[in-house]
Structures are given as structure tokens and as C-alpha cells.
């Protein structure tokens, strides 16, 4: 009791967001090989998952779509009948209380898997931003509560904010992936989304893992451009960055406990090297202790079930 009384960090389900991968089709539930327990779902199964999420008290989800057709110009990203747009519409109607976050990027919609449009083997920043704006508008129009640009193009937050305001989406929140490192921990996600770049890497637009002060600059730019929430990604190897930003800014900070961080725990637990439940609690607590207000994690359902069933307590 005394330990609880003076405990400095308490994690709660209120701060947790669950990522969902949506695909076209019906009755599809395909496990992502490198992410045991995580599935690509068709919309009917997403709705079943949302019911579970609502029952467990998880406040929101972030949606990623894999379209059937990809092209050079990522036109699927702003198709009003696109997979994520359709999901948002149905989800909002059936579960109005669940916060719907639309990951806004081009990598799942381009044939080459890069987060921007390519011309002469180079990312075209401004053309990419124009398409991201269209994509954000189509998500807001479908009913998304939060737009989460994850592409790392320059100037996109300002253009998205202006476009949202102009179209009357004044209350639509922008949660920017402001600090996104060029990390090795995203590989399982790229399998889930079928979005690995077919040539080159993302080092020209994602951040150098060796830099800390650059994070301050990126965060400041995004906040000045109108980001309501800033995100650090990945979380575990970047707790110092979360903490550093928490000390510098007063906007809410989200941390993305990414796919590789999830798969690592799953693999080690399966081999019997660590205890899975305590590892999950310890990791989520550490991310919160570092200063994250919101944690996006593939452990969300497992964590919420553990709490609900009193399966794990720190004491
Ligand atoms: C899209 C995007 C990525 C992730 C979230 N949004 C992949 C990437 O940048 O390569 C990674 C999430 C994860 O690994 O769980 N750009």
C-alpha cells in the first residue's frame, strides 16, 4: 500500500492507442508473420476488433491501410472509397466514441514503397506534400478525429492545417510524427503493410539516429506549423528524446512503441528468455516515466486485458 501511495508513475489504459492494419476483402484475418498476435484485417473483422477495444476501454486506434492497387503517384492515399476512408466511415458510425487516428503517408500507396513521390530518383518534397494534404482531407471528410502525418516531408503540417481549416475541419487534430528516426525497428511493420522501399532507404527524410538536438528543431517546426501533438518514434531506444522534448515543450507527446520493439519481446518470451507480462508493464511504464502522454503500442489489447482480468499487478 505504501509503495502504491508514493508511486511516481502509473500507467493507465486511458493513454494507450492500438494500431490496426486494414485490407480489402471479407472475413480476412491474416497474422503478420513477424508480429505474432497482430493481424491484417478486412473491415468486417476490424469492426469486431473495435467492439473488443471498446469493451476493454482502449480510447483509440491508429489505422493503416494496404490498398489492392498501388501506383507511382499514390492516388489510393486520397481515394474517397479507399480502404482507410471506408473503414473510418463505418467505424465512426458504429463506434462514435472510439478515437480514430489516420496515419497519413504515401509508402503504402506507392509502387516503390517510399513515403513521397519520386522524380528522377529523388523524393519530390512539395509534390508529395500536395498529395498528403489531399489524403488528410479525405480522412477528415470520412470522419477521422486525428490526422497523423508520418512521411517526414518538410512543411506538411502547415499545409495540412491550412487545408483542414479552410474546409471547416477546425476541430480535427494533427498528431505529427515529428521525430521519426531512420530505425531498424520498423521492419516487421513494413511486412505488415507491404511498404518496404524497393530501392534505397529512408535516410534522406527520416532522422539520423545519432542526433538529439535536431529533434528539438523538428519538434519546434511542427509545433509552429500547427501540430497539436508531437510524436517520437521509435520509443524504447529513444526514451532520452521523449524526456528531452517533455522538458522543452508543453504540447502533449506521443511515443510509438514500434513493431520491432513488439516482436523482440514476443520472440524472447516465446523462447522463455523473459517473462512477457512483466516486460510489457515495464516497457510501457518506462515510456510513460520518460514523459510520453500517449503510447501507441501493439500490446494495447494484451495490456488492457491483463488489467481488466487482474492478471498482473506490480506489487
Ligand atoms: C509509415 C509508417 C511506418 C511506421 C509507422 N508509419 C514505417 C516506416 O516509416 O518505415 C512504423 C511503425 C512500426 O514499426 O510499428 N511511414
Task: List the keywords.
binds ligand PBG, two-stranded antiparallel ribbon, TIM Barrel, 11 helices, 315 residues
Can you put this structure into words, describing what you see?
With 315 residues, the protein is of the alpha/beta class. The protein contains eleven helices and twelve strands. β4, α3 and β5 form a beta-alpha-beta unit. α3 (83-94) runs parallel beside α4 (125-142). The protein is globular. The termini are close together. It binds ligand PBG.
| Ligand catalogue | ligand PBG
Mean pLDDT: 94
Rg, rounded, reads 19 Å
| Overall outline | globular
CATH third-level topology? TIM Barrel
CATH superfamily: Aldolase class I
Strands side by side in the biggest sheet: 1-4-5-8-9-10-11-12
Low-confidence stretches: none
Helix content: 25-40%
CATH class (first level) name: Alpha Beta
Number of domains: 1
| Amount of beta strand | 15-25%
CATH architecture: Alpha-Beta Barrel
* Secondary-structure element pattern, one letter each: HEEEHEHEEEHEHEHHEHEHHEH
Helix run count: 11
Question: Major sheet: size, sense and barrel closure?
Answer: 8 strands, parallel, barrel
This entry's quaternary arrangement is single chain
Distance between the termini: 9 Å
Structural class: alpha/beta
Q: What's the total number of strands?
A: 12
Structure summary:
The protein has 315 residues and is an alpha/beta fold. 40% of the residues lie in helices and 19% in strands.
